[in-house]
TrEMBL record, chain A:
It is a multi-pass membrane protein. This is Dipeptide transport system permease protein. One of its GO terms (biological process) is protein transport. Belongs to the binding-protein-dependent transport system permease family. OppBC subfamily. The chain crosses the membrane at residues 35-56, 103-128, 140-158, 201-224, 230-247, 268-289. Pfam families: BPD_transp_1 (PF00528), OppC_N (PF12911).
TrEMBL record, chain B:
This is ABC-type dipeptide transporter. One of its GO terms (molecular function) is ATP binding. Residues 6-253 form the ABC transporter domain. It is an enzyme of class 7 (translocase). Belongs to the ABC transporter superfamily. CDD domains: ABC_NikE_OppD_transporters (cd03257).
UniProtKB/TrEMBL annotation, chain C:
Residues 96-325 form the ABC transmembrane type-1 domain. It is found in: Cell membrane. It comes from the Bacteria. GO terms for molecular function: dipeptide transmembrane transporter activity. It comes from Pseudomonas duriflava. Belongs to the binding-protein-dependent transport system permease family. OppBC subfamily. Keywords: Cell membrane, Membrane, Transmembrane, Transmembrane helix, Transport. InterPro entries: BPD_transp_1_N, MetI-like, MetI-like_sf. It holds the Pfam family BPD_transp_1_N. Its main location: membrane. The chain crosses the membrane at residues 9-30, 100-123, 135-158, 198-218, 256-277, 307-328. This is Dipeptide transport system permease protein.
């Protein structure tokens, strides 16, 4: 009964193939069922937004005076002509919701871009100048954080007046502090690392240090924050619309649609329910994606809520 | 009757088919006895004691033919009845005193909690008892320490507090799980001395989990050596040091610096098998210099008697016992090997 | 502890001045003629315009104007509403108890339920219950609460008729405002059934306003509990033979509360923002609705100093939370 050990070199000969970071990320992300569900729903919404004029059965502003407050097609009194029914002016609800996706995504995207870029810049400056500019910037951000975000947005719109562009500006300003704080915290964490010192010793200039050396290592929490602020941008925009301070009617914005639907709460539940449900589902989908992103990008962030 | 009786204790994390973390463990502790449990990290020492204390949570589960304390079957005691025992007659001191105390409560509160729970003392009486306990564990300025928070204490001080908590209800058995590992070397001896003094004064039994064999030699009456979740050898203290029976015990003793004066410190090659690479036979066989073909089977813990020396060993070919029956030591290439995957499953 | 409070105060004061700077500039950034904006008067003749400019101090240099503004604030002079001609401070203090009552009820609802849900989810980690609680709380977190309010009104008030649609109290009752808190005032009065009616009015708004904090607290409690339950001191507590309830609530939850408390403090700000929406939906006569109405009416003195008052409130609440945080966490309290 003689047996020999398997050749010891087996393990050494295996060349380890490292999966590409994208593949690895996707593996972790797709493991989270909620996140994938959120992604699929968002794909539907994005498709609706991109191809709204072709997908929507009607013009969102076209009023069908013979069909005021028609219930959805599956209810008594509904017609297949208007799948989700019509509103108080006889406009097709489905078409308005589809066109509303355009606005919500536009507001979300625009406000994220408008706050992400200055936020990162200010955060980098604050992180790289911890004695002079840094405290000043952070103090400013603290002041902005002292006001609840929606209230600050309301205040800004009160100055600028309601409208699409002002909604974007208000929301962008409101979400600025979290980017600045996050970037600064990440920069402060990275700046003492040896690789930064090495790069500095190698003669890298300030700009190179900021954008090429340090920034890429701070991206994970920023991406997660961008997702979360995208969803809160949609919520805040809808809230402003609901208060009559956002996008003005007859533009089919989800929050604005709700504001005018309030009066029909007793007669036409669909006018009230459907726009809100669309907001809820979109925001939920983005938040689910955000959770998935956070878990996939940075396990250390998991504990935070 | 022994104070603590353990027969065929198994602890698994997962279903019944999961690999046991503690496997077929037999152990007894008598009243007033000091028993040392020795083994490498991950050998199941702490898990065994957690099972005795009833601190194993799902998905972990504990089975045993007998797990009895002072004649009471611990596995049959549920909930409240078991808790009446734990912390009172049966208590435990943990490894890291800096994390074992709740940071939100004062030292006094945490000691009084035990006093209130198990002795039924209230108010001033409880406070006085807590003070008495702090003096018992030789904390200077005990009265002022009652209102201190754990983060204001040093490691040694915290461990004294933890010991005070453990002896608060005068236990019959104290389990000390590596009570000095996390402490500074200078403090270690003090804490060990304190524990032994308390053990003598209170007449309680003490289970000392450690991997410091020098401490064992000085303090314990009996030793249980564990390897990979199994007890591989039990025996009385001077004997086990003079004539270890299990190859693993022998290797442990050879690794004590004092035993190899001048010579190169002996080490055992390889590591303790993990959950997924347990050999099918004797668990030590892949690392054992004396392995024989028979070692592909799993040995049982067999009691032996040699003159006046009693003990038990889990080996087909025990050292220092019937050497005439010993087969020839095989060169490394001829030692039995397990099928690849069984031994070194790269899970 | 004293130095801890002093340090926090040192952070608070510059923040407060920053906010005054913000509200000071707010009114000057509004496009249009400042006199028109401030006085709400249109097409005044040039002489009166100049007089008004002088009277309002708008002809002075900006820094002087700012100091005047601060001086006015220091004297408690927050200006007059253009619409009601009432003192802004007086309006605020009259309306604030309503908001505070609503916010407190919402917070109690959110805290009690959120802690409970979070603790249960953590204890039953990985179970269906845990997934359910987490799913619901993420939904709550994503909730557009103005819509949520409408849905609840539609179902409970319109369809079932269980709760009133709006307001704080039925018109049947005539309650003399003593404390401004309807629950207390109705108890003090001898009107029968008024207290129950006030309570009925509070239920839906509290749920609506409490939904997001509830979700946040539940999520935070769960993750903090999971963290704490792994700690050695929880094992120590169990090894003492303490009851599971004592281990969970006295030893684990006490430590898990520390991060939850911080989140709770941060929620106060968004609670006031949420109050703006909730009060609008339920016609709740509080400062949120007051502010929105003022914006709609271009009542700028109210907008300006209403925002200042609310922001100051948030700053103070955050300060209190910081102090409480120090009390809950001995390690912070003893930091020097």
């Amino acid at each position: 009964m003689e047996r020999t050990l398997p050749p010891a070199s087996v393990a050494d000969e295996q060349t380890i193939v490292y999966p590409s970071p994208y593949k690895e990320f996707w593996k972790a992300f797709s493991h989270n069922k909620g996140a994938v569900g959120g992604l699929l729903f968002m794909l539907v919404i994005v498709t609706c937004a991109l191809f709204a004029p072709w997908i929507a059965p009607y013009n969102p502003s076209e009023q069908y005076r013979d069909f005021l407050l028609t219930p959805p097609s599956w209810l008594e009194g509904g017609t297949t002509q208007f799948l989700l029914g019509t509103d108080e002016l006889g406009r097709d609800l489905l078409s308005r919701l589809i066109h509303g996706a355009r606005l919500s995504l536009l507001i979300g995207l625009a406000s994220v871009v408008c706050s992400l870029i200055p936020g990162i810049l200010l955060g980098l400056i604050a992180g790289f100048s911890p004695t002079r500019l840094g405290p000043f910037i952070m103090r400013l951000m603290d002041i902005m954080l002292a006001l609840p975000s929606l209230l600050l947005a309301v205040a800004i719109v009160a100055i600028l007046g309601p409208g699409l562009a002002n909604t974007v500006i208000a929301i962008a300003i409101v979400s600025l502090p979290s980017y600045v704080r996050l970037t600064r915290a990440a920069v402060m964490g990275e700046i003492t690392r040896d690789y930064v010192t090495a790069s500095r010793l190698a003669g890298a200039g300030m700009l190179r240090l900021m954008f090429i050396t340090v920034l890429p290592n701070c991206m994970a929490p920023l991406i997660v924050q961008a997702t979360l602020s995208f969803s809160s941008a949609i919520l805040d925009a809808a809230a402003l619309g609901f208060l009559g301070l956002g996008v003005q009617p007859p533009t089919p914005e989800w929050g604005t649609m709700l504001a005018s639907a309030r009066d029909y709460i007793e007669r036409a539940w669909w006018v009230v329910t459907l726009p809100g449900l669309t907001i809820l589902l979109s925001v939920l989908a983005i938040n689910l994606m955000g959770d998935g992103l956070r878990d996939a990008l940075d396990p250390r962030l998991k504990v935070q809520s | 009757m022994s104070l603590l009786e353990i027969q065929n204790l198994n602890v698994r994390f997962g279903g019944n088919d999961a690999i046991p973390v503690v496997e077929g463990l037999d152990l007894t502790v008598d009243q007033g006895e000091v028993l040392a449990i020795v083994g490498e990290s991950g050998s199941g020492k702490s898990v065994t004691m957690m099972a005795v204390m009833g601190l194993i949570d799902a998905p972990g589960h504990v089975t045993a033919n007998r797990l009895a304390f002072a004649g009471q079957d611990l596995l049959k005691l549920k909930g409240r009845a078991r808790r009446r025992l734990i912390g009172k007659d049966l208590s435990m001191v943990f490894q890291d005193p800096m994390t074992a105390l709740n940071p939100s409560y004062t030292v006094g509160y945490q000691i009084e909690e035990v006093v209130k729970q198990h002795l039924g003392l209230r108010g001033r009486a409880a406070r006085l008892r807590a003070l008495e306990l702090l003096e018992r564990v030789e904390i200077p300025g005990a009265a002022s320490r009652l209102s201190a928070y754990p983060h204001q204490l040093s490691g040694g001080m915290s461990q004294r507090v933890a010991i005070a908590m453990a002896i608060a209800a005068e236990p019959k058995l104290l389990i000390a799980d590596e009570p000095t590992t996390a402490l500074d070397v200078t403090i270690q001896a003090q804490i060990m001395e304190l524990l032994l003094n308390l053990q003598k004064d209170e007449g309680m039994a003490l289970i000392l989990i450690t991997h410091d064999l020098a401490v064992v030699a000085e303090t314990a009456q009996r030793v249980c050596v564990m390897y990979a979740g199994q007890a591989v050898e039990t025996g009385k203290v001077p004997n086990i040091f003079q004539a270890p029976k299990h190859p693993y015990t022998e290797a442990l003793l050879a690794a004590i610096p004092e035993h190899s004066l001048g010579a190169r410190l002996s080490t055992l090659p390889g590591i303790v098998p993990g959950r997924y690479d347990r050999p099918s036979g004797c668990l030590l066989s892949p690392r054992c210099p004396y392995a024989q073909p028979r070692c592909l089977e799993r040995p049982a813990l067999e009691p032996y008697r040699q003159d006046t020396v009693e003990g038990a060993v889990r080996c087909f070919f025990p050292r220092n016992l019937n050497p005439e029956k010993w087969p020839q030591v095989l060169p490394e290439s001829q030692r039995p090997s397990h099928l690849p995957g069984e031994t070194h499953g790269r899970a | 502890m004293f130095s801890f409070i002093a340090r926090r105060l040192g952070l608070l004061i510059p923040t407060f001045f920053g906010v005054t700077l913000l509200t000071f500039s707010l009114i000057r950034l509004i496009p249009g003629d400042p006199v028109e904006v401030m006085m709400g008067e249109r097409r005044v003749d040039p002489q009166m315009h100049a007089e008004a400019l002088h009277r309002l101090g708008l002809d002075k240099p900006l820094y002087q104007q700012y100091f005047d503004y601060l001086g006015n604030l220091a004297h408690g002079n927050l200006g007059q509403s253009l619409v009601t001609r009432d003192n802004v401070w007086h309006e605020f203090t009259t309306l604030f108890p309503a908001t505070m009552e609503l916010a407190l009820c919402a917070m109690i609802f959110a805290t009690v339920l959120g802690l409970l849900a979070g603790v249960i989810a953590a204890l039953k980690r990985g179970s269906l219950l845990d997934h359910g609680v987490m799913g619901i709380s993420l939904t709550g977190f994503s909730m557009p609460i103005f819509w949520w309010g409408l849905i609840l009104i539609m179902f409970f008030s319109v369809r079932l008729g269980w709760t009133p649609v709006s307001g704080r109290l039925d018109l049947l009752y005539d309650i003399e405002p003593k404390t401004g808190f309807m629950l207390i005032d109705t108890l003090l009065s001898d009107e029968e059934g008024a207290f129950v009616d006030a309570l009925h009015h509070l239920i839906l708004p509290s749920i609506v306003l409490g939904t997001i904090p509830l979700a946040v607290i539940a999520r935070m409690t769960r993750s903090a509990m999971l963290e704490v339950l792994r700690e050695d001191y929880v094992r120590t507590a169990r090894a003492k033979g303490l009851s599971p309830a004592r281990v969970v609530f006295v030893h684990a939850l006490r430590n898990a509360l520390i991060p939850v408390l911080t989140v709770l403090g941060l929620q106060v700000g968004s609670l006031l923002a949420g109050a703006v929406l909730t009060e609008t939906i339920f016609s709740w006569p509080g400062v949120g609705k007051w502010l929105i109405d003022a914006i709609a009416r271009r009542d700028y003195p109210v907008v300006q100093n209403g925002i200042l008052l609310i922001a100051t409130l948030v700053i103070i609440v955050n300060f209190v939370v910081d102090i409480l945080y120090g009390l809950a966490n001995p390690r912070i309290r003893h930091q020097r």
